[in-house]
Amino acid sequence: LTGLFGINVGGMPGADNSIAFWIFSLTLLILVTIQLIVFRIRKWL
Asked: What confidence tens digit (pLDDT) does each residue in 11-40 have?
């Protein structure tokens, strides 16, 4: 979590967008959810 707040956004796409942090966080949440689903299907969890 602390890594998210330490992201240097200078020159990054979306740095001028006021909701870029939330878009980034939502994207990470979606990726983790997909990984958990795949892991459960393969019985790795």
From this structure: 666 777 788 889 888 999 999 999 999 999
Cα 32 to Cα 16: distance, rounded to the nearest angstrom: 26
Q: What is the CA radius of gyration of the chain?
A: 14
Predicted pLDDT at 16: 76
Contacts of 8 (CB under 8 A, 6+ apart): none
Cβ-proximal residues to 45 (8 Å cutoff; 6+ apart), any chain: 36, 39
Q: Where are the domains of the chain?
A: 1-42
Q: What is the DSSP letter of 26?
A: H
